[in-house]
Amino acid sequence: MTDRDDSVETIQQEMTAFARRARATAARMHPELSLVSYTLLAHLDDQQGCRATDLAAHYLLDKSTVSRQIAALEKLGFVERRVDPDDHRVQVLHPTEEGAQVLANVTASRRQAFHERLADWDEADLDRFAAYLVRYNAAQERLG
Amino acid sequence: MTDRDDSVETIQQEMTAFARRARATAARMHPELSLVSYTLLAHLDDQQGCRATDLAAHYLLDKSTVSRQIAALEKLGFVERRVDPDDHRVQVLHPTEEGAQVLANVTASRRQAFHERLADWDEADLDRFAAYLVRYNAAQERLG
DNA sequence: CAATCCACGTTGTACTATACAACTACTTCA
DNA sequence: TGAAGTAGTTGTATAGTACAACGTGGATTG
Fold first, then answer.
1. What does the pLDDT average to over B25-54?
2. SS3 letters across chain A
3. Which residues of A touch B125 (CB under 8 A)?
4. Where on the tree of life does the source sit, at the highest rank (chains A, B) (predicted)?
5. What nucleotides of chain D have any atom within 7 angstroms of a protein Cβ?
6. What's the structural domain count of chain B?
């Protein structure tokens, strides 16, 4: 086993451990908005509205999954649909005001949790860690 | 927004993106052993056997969840139970030979996938990234 | 322009992971 | 020895997910 292998092994283990915990942690912290709902709503907010198909492509989810997630968010009053006048098949999705508000709350609370976890990190480490994660995820997207 | 905030924001986004994808990716790569089954079986292998309660405590899962996961692994022939002679409530769980073999295969294949993703990283970066992940996860465990 | 094909979304169905509560069986301890 | 605690299972419910079948509405092409 080389040092390189050791590092890769650790990265694998830690990423796996994190992935296992993430949903449950998110659910405990934000019962009002699951991790998936949160990311979908955040994407709508970020993109100033988009189609269900775009969400499915972006998050590698089946369109039926997105359809149901959006239906749930709509039922909660967090998302509204606007039929595209140029193509009646298309529904452009937007956060409602209430949805934007809830999103902002959850975002703030998540941000605070991350700040707490990272409180004793110095800025150089934070910066490098952030860059590594970006690089890792980019590679994962590239390689599937 | 300070640089520090920017870094934390990026870390949050990237960890979230990773968490969202992890299960589906694992399931695609290893239909024979889900991420959860994999980690449970790996823990049994690593610990040379342990109790269901230990697994539940270690992975913050409900004992009923572990019970069902183990039942599934047993049905697949990957895990066997040995009743503790000193305490008839306790079942010590062990991977079977076949379970150990499947685990080894999945581990090898996961390891290879990680090596591919990280192929163009130099060793210093790998080492730092591994250390950051360990540090991050430790903080998360500490703070819930 | 009609027939065909394609894109968008919904619904039926099924499965996995999960939690909580109620239960059984066993152990420990006062 | 009886009460309390521990290990594990089972009943029930929920969330998230995929795949397949479908309906509807645009786009293309002979």
1. 90
2. CCHHHHHHHHHHHHHHHHHHHHHHHHHHHCCCCCHHHHHHHHHHHHHCCEEHHHHHHHHCCCHHHHHHHHHHHHHCCCEEEEECCCCCCCEEEEECHHHHHHHHHHHHHHHHHHHHHCCCCCHHHHHHHHHHHHHHHHHHHHHC
3. 132
4. Bacteria
5. 5-12, 15-21, 23-27
6. 1
